[in-house]
Every structure is written in C-alpha cells, then in structure tokens.
Amino acid sequence: MNKLKLIIVLSIAILFSSCSEDKDTEPIIQTGNGFNYKGSFYSVDKAFIKDFNIIDNESSKIAIVLSNVNPSRTTPKWGGVNYFYFAFEGTNVIEGTITPVPEYSIRENADFENFSILAGNTILRHNDPRVSNIAISSSVNIKSISIDEIDLDFEFTRPDGEIITGSYKGTYE
C-alpha cells in the first residue's frame, strides 16, 4: 500500500512538473508584414511611398509608411493603428541598406485623424524628447523594389536593449 501511494504521489508530481510553464523561453518572433516588439507582433499590411520631389531628379526626402490602415480610404478618425514610418534623402527608392535611418517613427494602437497619426504607444521616434524612444542603432534593408511591389526588412534597437524587427513584402501605393 505504501508503494502504491508513493507511485501515485510521484506520478502526480511528474504530471504537474511537466505541465509547468517555462518562463525562460524566448518570445516567438513572427514574420510577415509587421513588426515585433516585446514579444508581440503588430501587423502592417499596407505600404505607401512618398517622394517629396516629383518634378526633377534632384535628391529629396523619400518616405515609406507601413500601416494596418489606408489613410486615403479610412473614416475621419480610426483607432488601433500600427504604424512604421521612415524617411531618407535620395533620388528614388533602390535596393540596399539604409543605416542609420535618419527619420523614423514606430507606434502601435495609435489614432489616425485628418492624415495624422496621434496618441497610441510610441515605440520609437527620431525626434522624441524622451531619450528612451530614440534608436541607438537602426537599419532598413530594401531587398527588392519594382513598379508596384517592395520587399524590405528592418531592425531598430532602443537604449533599453529592446530590439524591434519587422518586414514587409507586397504591393505599395
């Protein structure tokens, strides 16, 4: 009878120890159109490219925006916006790596109103008064670009060691 109790107790202990949560595991990094931050994935399934100089072939600011909403097709106010913006000087978008990235903003759960991103959680922003929100390293790798599709990935590191990684592959406007 004592052996049976011992076997039952050991079986229960093994069952509970095998079902316990392992808190030392790394967060799962998802891939696809979006970015990873603190173990969460934020979808950005739309891309927009804006060249601020379409008159001639002079260098100017070029901005790329990835978002989960289309600013030209949304209602006047939209919440829950995931948003990645970066800009650089150039004559056009070409394959290659941009590092460091001179202008950037990454937000989640923001509001979109009158073509402006408001509120939400600012993950990074190049001109943020809070030093903790300014990247200590940044790179965007444009792997391919065609007349209507772009393939890129990016990585930004915050001063607190958090790394934001992401990618987008698909059409753009």
Task: Describe what you observe in this structure.
There is one protein chain. With 173 residues, this protein is mainly β. Helices cover 10% and strands 49% of the residues. It has one helix and twelve strands. It has one helix at 2-19, and strands at 34-37, 40-43, 46-51, 60-67, 77-90, 96-98, 103-113, 116-118, 121-125, 137-145, 149-157, 163-171. The strands form two sheets. The protein has a six-stranded antiparallel β-sheet, with no helix packed on it. Strand 7 and strand 8 form a beta hairpin. The longest helix is centred in the first third of the chain and has 18 residues, at 2-19. It is globular. The N and C termini lie far apart (75 Å).
Itemize the secondary structure elements and their pairings:
Layout (H helix, E strand, L loop, with lengths): L1 H18 L14 E4 L2 E4 L2 E6 L8 E8 L9 E14 L5 E3 L4 E11 L2 E3 L2 E5 L11 E9 L3 E9 L5 E9 L2
Antiparallel strand pairs: 1-2, 1-12, 3-4, 4-5, 5-7, 6-10, 7-8, 7-9, 10-11, 11-12
